[in-house]
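User: Quick sanity check before I run a bigger batch. Here is a single chain. Can you write out its predicted 3D structure?
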Amino acid sequence: MMSKVNQPYTRNTYRWVILAVFGLLSITGTFAQYQIAALAYQIIPMYDLSSLQFASLISVPMLGTFLLSLGAGALADRFGVKQVVTVGAIISVTAAFLRVFANNYLALLICMLFMAIVMSMQNANASKYLGMWFPKEQIGMAIGSLYVCNMLGISIGLATSALFPSVQSAFWTAAFIMLGSALLWLIFAKNKPAGAPDLPVMPVLKYIKVAAKSKVIWMAGATAGLYMAGSVAFSTFLPTALNAVKGADPVTAGAMASALTLGNTIGSLLGPVLVDRIGLIKPVVMPLTIIGTLVLYFGWMTPVGTIMSICLFIGGLLTGGSLPIALSFPMRLKEIGPAYAGSAGGIISMTQMAGAFFIPTFILAPIAGTNYGFIFLASVLLIFSVALVYIFIPEVGLKAQAGRRHSNITSID
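Assistant: Done. Predicted structure follows.
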């Protein structure tokens, strides 16, 4: 069956090099970004920051991705992913070096915003780029691997930044590491594998117009936004809530949060692999999401300890595949495909970041205040809503695609 689905060039072994350099950009970018969180105890007094100002340094990259995603995808459709990501890498690396010299809040905020541009370019174009290099049954795995790289960068940034002798030395290290990954990208990245057809060249707005007409892309974006809204809110408030409501010390609260993060990371890879192994999306995502949200909420309700950590890990594991599966939709849809996948991916990325940035910050937090029970209930309901949206999304897994092709051939015969 797969020989009919895939073109020979998707079996090119160079695809693993492409995944490596693409993933390395993600690791180094998130590593640099999350140094801020690990160095809070030094950065807040150094820059005389309020709690709101410090929170904005963490969240501004998400705002930047929300604003840039659609344009990033459309430009990649027009000029190629390598060119667009390279420009983003140059801007982000420059901002990383300038961050070393930022001596006030505004300068630091601007640097954090521009440092995230390369990740905005990547997120919008992950389906398009990896979908051209990998066979259809490996697209989910490839995008899931990219998400794992993202989480790995976050973990490294949080774990190592406090080990540096100063904030400046941590920032210098991040800047040079980002530079190194950008150079590797420039040297080894290619727009498409040898033998792949050239894509049509059209005005940028044409790509956006075609992608925006797809109801499935908007629904996939809605699942990404709902998942991110619930996941960001749950993981953001969890350590504070465990300390304030359940009396957990900061180390224990951090360990509970890390169990959730670990589950999410593993699930982001296993979920897409399971989807492509079975060949169907809805029978995998819907039950895993429903069960995962129930386990997550049960985890919050249990006393702090082993049972809570297991529940948070399992809940993260079961729900973690939702996001990379949503990001894979552009290359799964016949009406989108590689020609329009950048713009379609930009729509999904834009709605993903809208959920991550606006709902926890401007809706949940003001309504709930310190009512953490309400926050976690709302968070799991947001993630649960992903399964409800999937009721209206047509099945586009490999088996469904193969079935439609078989029906078309039979009708022609």
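DSSP finds 20 helices and no strands in the chain.

User: Great, the batch can go ahead then.
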